Amino acid sequence: MNHLLSRHKESRKLTTLIENRTTYNAEYAELNIFETHKSAEQVSLTFDFPVIASMLTGKKVMHLEGMEPFDFFPGESVVMPTNKEMIIDFPLAEKNNPTQCLALGIDSDKIDEIVEKFNQNVAIERENNNWKLNETSSHLVHNTDINHLVGRLVHTFTDQNKSKDILLDLMIQELIVRLLQTKAKAFILNDPSGTLTDTRIGMVIKFIKNNLTNKDITVELLAKKACMSTSHFHKKFKNTLGISPIDYINSEKIKFSKKLIKQSKNLRISEIAYKSGFNNISYFNRQFKKMEMITPQQFKKSFIKE
Fold first, then answer.
1. What is the pTM of this model?
2. Phi/psi of residue 228, each to 5°?
């Protein structure tokens, strides 16, 4: 992500070492890039518009109303309603290794317009869901498409292209839809009301979770569990979760590997890969970087001081 901030660094003014703010405006949105160059605690931020905040580099610890404090890393977003306070700690920010985050503010009417279109076209299995984006705080883990989209947004906001507003309009619509899909997927995977326990996709998800570190899980095996042909299962799975079976399995394994890295600081990355269900360390590294935008070693260093 650092290379995407090069244009920003050329023009921005650094006036404070804690949450230095640079703002780029568009027709119905604004991009704020925050940079913190020294460790700090209990820094308060509030916006008078809905905000999608995404980490670019470093680590924050977020304290949000109604949620347990959590670590906030690159490849993740927080969706904040209007006038909701964020209390932030910066445990690892340094002069030459700043913590950087973007906060994308979007006009609430525009969000409502896109959400309405989304809800007209989305139903999960037998459930019709009225998905919302900005009524409560949400902590969301990106997929690869959202990571790429965040990078494109930073590039376009900091560019002087004459078509800037048109391009941003399309990208912001896509970002909102993809975040809504992420919330919908989280609902399915967490399944708080048990709505999927009697569905074939639901049973497959349960099987994957119970056998996550099994290196022999294949699409063919999952299709048999679902009593479907391989092609029909692949299509049904992707339509339901918005992700292919293999990408879902890899994303869950990477999520598990992140927990191992945090909890088992003395394990080598190769051991982490094996314990997470990967046979090949190179494939593990590629998948980790694809999903998290950083390597496993960089992730480890992001919260462990040498």
1. 0.66
2. -130, 160
